[in-house]
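seq as requested:
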Amino acid sequence: MARFRRISFAGSRNREIDSRQLKSPAFASPYAGLARFCYHAGMFTGLVEELGTITAVVPQGAAVELSLHAPLVASDAAIGDSISVNGCCLTVVRREGDVLSFEAGSETLSRTNLGRLHSGSRVNLERSLKVGDRLGGHYVSGHIDALATLDRRLEEGPWAFLWFRVPAELSRQLASKGSVAVDGVSLTLVECMADQFSVALIPHTLAVTTLGQLQPGDAVNIETDLLAKYVQRQLAFVVDR
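struct tokens:
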């Protein structure tokens, strides 16, 4: 078994750590589970850092290469870094100044709204979490569970209330006052029904994310809370006994 593994949460650039370090006191902390989870992946907090603009979508067989303009996120990006693009954890494959390029395979395109992007589309961007960063949202893996559709939008002054329709199988992972990531944005659930949930968006969120431009019928990427997934899985084992 290889002694060294690649981990990306410890900085803006992936680094290799000795697997024996995971048993050291430094990893006997709330970050221990996060460290183990982050092998070969990034971890995010659901706070959008920048709105990027798609500059090119190049088909590559069943996959595509996405290029986007993002001066802030690109400022310290390196090839191999993990970036959340509309909530999807993608790897930087090329950097040319303020333009970053990523590859999205057929599985990603079928499960997310990345296949619907075109030149000029805006996307929510977030760099992977670093140890010591403030966790202003909630733990977001960048692994999309399903697409949801905006069913209804209600404006109340500067606020907006949005209702999304989701696959029924995800309903057990959603709870009022719990967390959900919508296109990579960490949000608090207001209402949860059999196949719908609602959120309330403050003016700041509407201004600095793509959610401000959503209209009924638009598809968004949904990632339910990691803790909810683990609880549901453990309960399934209890029921099976």
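The chain is about 15% helix and 40% strand.
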